[in-house]
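Our consortium's second objective concerns turning raw sequence data into structural hypotheses that experimental partners can test. To show how far this objective has progressed, the report includes one record in full. It was chosen at random from the queue rather than selected for favorable results. The single chain below, 520 residues long, was entered without modification.
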Amino acid sequence: MRKSSQLEEEINKRKTFAIISHPDAGKTTLTEKILFLSGAIRSAGTVKSKKSDKYATSDWMEMEKQRGISITSSVMQFTYQDNKINILDTPGHQDFSEDTYRTLMAVDSVVMIIDAAKGVEAQTKKLFKVCSDRGIPIFTFINKMDRQGREPFELLEEIEEVLGIQSFPMNWPIGMGHSFQGVYDRVVEKVHLYNEQKEHQSYQLDKGNWNEDILKDLIEPEQLLELQETITLLNEAGDSMDLQAIKQGKQTPVFFGSAISSFGIPSFMEHFLELAPEPQGRDSNNGFIHPSNRDFSGFVFKIQANMNPAHRDRIAFMRVCSGKFIKGMEAWNDRTAKSVKLAQGQQFFAASRGNIDEAFPGDIVGLYDPGLYQIGDTLCGTKNTFSFGKLPHFPPEHFAKVRAKNAMKQKHFYKGVSQLAEEGAVQVYKTDKMEETILGVVGVLQFEVFEHRLKTEYGVDLDIQPLPHSCARWVSEDKNIKIDNQNYLVHDQVGNPVIIFENDFSLRWFKDKNPDIEIY
């Protein structure tokens, strides 16, 4: 009984969430400021600019620092006001969306950042749909209110119309851009004042009394009157906060603020920690698995090679779903039906990590991987295994032939190709006749990342020849298949036959000519 209560106590302490946005909306900056406020870092970095050599903590890969973009998801685990926080910072660029989609399978809630000037952008829509389809609770932070942007009501209307989710403004901005003076917290009836010196000041209203002299001294009369009228309108005619709808991902609490100046983040975190769910249960092929189930379970959602290039290590990122992870414990892999010893668990803070002796539902544990794990593997604490199901898999849309420029580097080339392919960012195909290597990716920027990592992590210079093809489809068999010269019959990493088609017309032509061949 004591173990069960300890487990439930640890579960209730934890919040595991991802931060998503369109590129440049302020995702990584918000992450940095949360880390700074928690005391996890001493100074908050920013995405690198020409005038700065201070990098964001979560952008640990060398190419991320050079390009000023997030290329791979990173995990940061720390304590914030007695809460155990697991933040998964995801790439915003669409070319790395496959990594983001898989990472979203490992969280219990999401913070969605929207640029106040640009509103809901293309990548935000895609990421939102993934969260919405899973019913993940979504919290919205409208960023850059200290710059001129669109009207708050217009932004809320766009969220509701474009994303199809009801919004509830938790606070309301007082002005915008040069006239930005702060926000009014509707929940606790408190005014948070802003100035460019970043000296934050708050004032608690006495039972919503807008006529207090101190407010007239702090806020311009016109803005104070407009704020009072707006809050009255929202309270009387607006939607009310619906905790059940928030939990189901049908209503999003909306916060206005500025990540770059840290304004609005403390109050945002205060409300977020109160409203965001603790680690949730998961469906499996053996029924619903509750986090308080005493039997350990978890699943691998990401594999990363060479986090420490000096040791050529490979780490499998596992989300703990139920029970308790204990260093050295025995677990069973549902895919292989074999037991594994979880000897060295790692806890992450971006590229930094340390050994841990135990972990609980919601935690992300790094497992040293000598080639035992694949993305989507379910690990169970008993021989009676089950599966949480496969993670999202997306067919590539861009292809290229690759080879090592130096024939003496072939061994390093094949090792690098194999290890990076196991991370899931690229798919590798082999042609039958010439044994050529073809890469398939979701976004073309992945080719550049792949080339950079082969050179820096494996010492291999690549020759990359882009192909005009646009889709790949797996086929049920590779015998008696006739394809034209424009398409490729290849095999994937595990030997399954795949046809790479030049375009949709070629795909339709093949289906018409081969009605007996199953294609998927």
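The partners drew two points from this record. DSSP finds 13 helices and 30 strands in the chain. The radius of gyration is 25 Å. Both points have been shared with the crystallography group to help prioritize constructs.
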